Amino acid sequence: MTSLPVVNQPPHRCGALLDHLSRRMRLRSESVLAPLGLRPRHLIALTVLRDLGGSSQQDLAKILEMDGTNVVGLLNDLEAENLIERRRSPVDRRRHVVELTDVGVKLLVRAEFALAAVEDEVLCGLTGEQRETLYELLHQATNKSEVEACTEAVTRPTC
Amino acid sequence: MTSLPVVNQPPHRCGALLDHLSRRMRLRSESVLAPLGLRPRHLIALTVLRDLGGSSQQDLAKILEMDGTNVVGLLNDLEAENLIERRRSPVDRRRHVVELTDVGVKLLVRAEFALAAVEDEVLCGLTGEQRETLYELLHQATNKSEVEACTEAVTRPTC
DNA sequence: TGGATCGTTTGTGTAGGACAAACCATTAAT
DNA sequence: ATTAATGGTTTGTCCTACACAAACGATCCA
What we know:
The structure is a homodimer of 159-residue chains. Chain A has helices at residues 15-33, 40-52, 57-64, 68-80, 102-114, 116-122, 128-149; strands at residues 55-56, 84-88, 96-100. The first copy, chain A, is mainly alpha-helical and 159 residues long. In chain A, strands 1-3-2 form a 3-stranded antiparallel beta sheet. The longest helix of chain A is centred in the last third of the chain and has 22 residues, at 128-149. The first copy, chain A, is globular and about 50 Å long.
């Protein structure tokens, strides 16, 4: 009733498609990531940390929607490889501020490069431009969600 | 070197984002789908079957990238609820042609409707138009992949 | 007739991840 | 100052998804 004369068809649900495509991607990614000593969920954590530029473990747990105890294990893996660094927060010494190390940044780049072939295979139905659009949409959606999850993040006043 | 004067920045990798967003969606979907007696992977199977309009179990296994034995269990669940139907293929009586029943179609619609709130929450960072674009991209990508997987599908000559 | 294929059943193993309990260090409230 | 609450960690238990193998019946094909 607003303005557009668009056909009022039922909105498409992309949950199942998202799941399906994600699964295809993840399955193939595992073999590519293995030589780097990474698993798909490590890559997610690294990616999120890079996008955030650091986070407390609690916030990270919220964003990843993982149980806190499992986040500990995940970060232990990454810290053992010197990919992340846990520093005590100066404002609240109970907190750990988790950040990517230089090694982590570099490995993340290498991993993403290695995944190029996988993406080419899974997203073969899309043009380069469409893939970029897809990336933008996914990025925008996840970022907004993260902001939602990060209600009252006193940790980082810039948030 | 083709034509476009686009800035030549490293292409963005959306594997991790895809995984991340998919996880968020799946976690929330579970509670919504539970009252309907469905799990996320059931919904994927139903969705794929609807998009395909029927398939042999083998092809379905390829598309879902699942082990054949696990597909059997998945279909057993769905058949027990009368959501799908297994018919013997007339051309090759070893094969089962799997198709949605009317009940299945209706339940799938109901499930998608129930998932509207979940999508609204997870995709709150996107406008309606952007969500539609996302759907189109995901649909296009999965369909192409399915065609790839379905090499020489003698089952359905129309393919 | 014999070998290959589709689907099915059963069983085994592994991994992800949820959850709970107990602990330490630290902060905040009284 | 004592107490309660919080962030992180460890340990241990449990469940589910899934891959994988083996064996079977039915069917197709050479």
